[in-house]
Amino acid sequence: MANCLVAQSGGPTAVINATIAGIIKGNQLNNYYEKVYGGLHGIEGILQEKFVDLTHMSEEENRILRQTPASALGSCRYKLKRDNVEDFEKLFEIMEKYDIETLFYTGGNDSMDTVAALSEYAQKNGITNRRFVGCPKTVDNDLMHIDHCPGFGSAVKFIAETALQTWLDYNVYTREEVFILETMGRDAGWLAAGACLSNIVDLLVLPEVAFDEESFVKAVKDCVAKKNKCYIVISEGCKYADGSYLAAKNAKNDGFGHAILGGAGQTLKELLLEKGACQRAKVQDLSTAQRAFAVCQSLTDVNESFNLGLSAHLQSCNPEFSGKMVALRRAEGEEYDVEYFSIDASEVANFVKAFPGEWILPNYQGITAEAINYLQPLIVSSPVILYKDGLPAYVKPYYMR
Amino acid sequence: MANCLVAQSGGPTAVINATIAGIIKGNQLNNYYEKVYGGLHGIEGILQEKFVDLTHMSEEENRILRQTPASALGSCRYKLKRDNVEDFEKLFEIMEKYDIETLFYTGGNDSMDTVAALSEYAQKNGITNRRFVGCPKTVDNDLMHIDHCPGFGSAVKFIAETALQTWLDYNVYTREEVFILETMGRDAGWLAAGACLSNIVDLLVLPEVAFDEESFVKAVKDCVAKKNKCYIVISEGCKYADGSYLAAKNAKNDGFGHAILGGAGQTLKELLLEKGACQRAKVQDLSTAQRAFAVCQSLTDVNESFNLGLSAHLQSCNPEFSGKMVALRRAEGEEYDVEYFSIDASEVANFVKAFPGEWILPNYQGITAEAINYLQPLIVSSPVILYKDGLPAYVKPYYMR
Predict the structure, then answer these.
(1) B190 lies in the same domain as B234
(2) CATH number, domain at B19?
(3) Does residue A260 carry a pLDDT above 80?
(4) What is the nearest CA distance from A279 to chain B, expressed in angstroms?
(5) Where does residue A128 rank: exposed (0-12), middle (13-18), buried (19+ CB within 10 A)?
(6) pLDDT tens profile A319-341
(7) Looking at chain A, which residue has its C-alpha nearest residue B258?
(8) Which terminus of chain B is more solvent-facing, meaning fewer CB atoms within 10 Å of its CB: N or C?
């Protein structure tokens, strides 16, 4: 019996560990691999043979791992370049040394490129006993060929909850108030759009629509004139028509000549004050919390993330399964459900799925009912979170042990 | 049978409505008052006779009210000035018109001053059938003569959870990382100190200690040298030795000559980059979310807030009870518990309780074990939150109906 190796890459999410938990649990259910190794800090640590043995993880640890945010195995931004033969050779040597048949790699489109590259390399060199399987994750929800990405639903749930609750707060005074909520989303507006599930967003600014100062300021003025309030959600990646980021406008020099990007929300606030659209405005930038706040996991999201891990394990029991990403699509029918399948990782690599233009209402007025119908099932239900001394229980990261 | 009136003032919290829920439920249990009116937007709305009838609130609405953040009755910053005889006379006229025997007023030290002033006015003018009862609330935890304030525990729970979860996120890469978490607390460091419950804070910057650039930069350099990471928590109200706010240093002009305060965390980030203490730093400013995030209520906090409402109602059944604030103190014994009592509102008005100097470790190293022992019980246990379509159920604010 050969072994397998699981590793994580890219920016983490609130449910990324659930996929690892699924891979481990899958093997405990059918013992296809003798050992399940965890590679620390993605490809970077694998090339240094930094492994832990996860084969016999207890059910309790598996349970807590699913509610532990961020990559418990550590992450990396290291990208295997196709012309870096040395790295490829070293990786295959290590796989041979540890008798690793399958490498499961969790990540976004960069990681799917790694999976595709390694699989191609094996094929070209006639290596049939080393296989590579991609598992999707990204809060950004911008991967192609998958209905939605694990991590996205939980981030949207946290964002919509924050929108709803800060909206209740900003309404309490009779005075004029403008609130600006900034979400992640450098290239795609999925997360910002998700805030609209709260049903309280007045104006939505997405990267998919070139930002026009004049019409936006007018929209704010109209809203404030009508109800003395305006709740705005903006994606960090919003751009002017010339392609420059709003966040860059507010950049400062750090003293070494490097620009420090200000937030898009802060730029918006200053614009609104300058143009007299309002007398005061408050910015809340959700920053890291929106992808790390596992206390607000969507149960749908955790379960799908776990199931993608299980599915990856089970599909990998076919000795010809390589260079694939496991994925999910929406099942037909009235009730929300998903079906699991797989796709060539190369078809996912290096593409970005933007928020659909036909789902965006004109003049910053939010998103269509169809978009709401797409998003709504993804945040439904909450897992029972286990606590210890008033704080969520978590698995100590394996790279810290 | 006379009536009573409840109203809310000042900045809201995640559990402020639980006190109102307690006052209403108390009256449903003994029918001391014929009607329980809700006054909208505090004294401001009461002077305009903006009332709703809350007497027969259903158990279901009462239950959901307890998990609804922010002031469901609306709030105000309007302060009754002792020399404004017109306002006083008008208020007593309105109380007579609606036969209001008792006004329950929820708020911080400004609101307790209002309670004291109204009670004194009644006494001076020989008015014996109008009474005033204060109910404490503030996330800042800076009221005197009460062990801790309702709203504080839930805010600390959210802050400590965010600290823990963003810390797990910032650790995933092997590269150097500095993370700065900014909390509320203009005059007192209670909220920032609460982050230390997460047990991951490297450096803590409180308003109670004059900020010294040189020693702080050295502390960061030492921490980064040791572990390549540094997790910093800073209170928005941190000041230099000359009394100026760190946040003011980063102020910009809004185009009309008004200063826009930058955050203390942003100032800290720029300082650290300028001084070469680190190569990159990320700021998360918790802003409004930390006082509004009722999904992360502490059950201890909600229950105490509800019980203070019940206690206020029950103590008010004594016809001589006026000019008082209901309060709680820690019961003696090993197990955490509280006892309810009351104190003259004038003793609470206009004072601020700072975070104790003897609980602060030198050199930004956090807080003592005694401080942790004080804070820890306040975040324990989580209520079962009721959801609707994936988002927390809430009571529509009464001022919007």
Answers:
(1) yes
(2) 3.40.50.450
(3) no
(4) 10
(5) exposed
(6) 999 999 999 999 999 999 999 99
(7) A273
(8) C
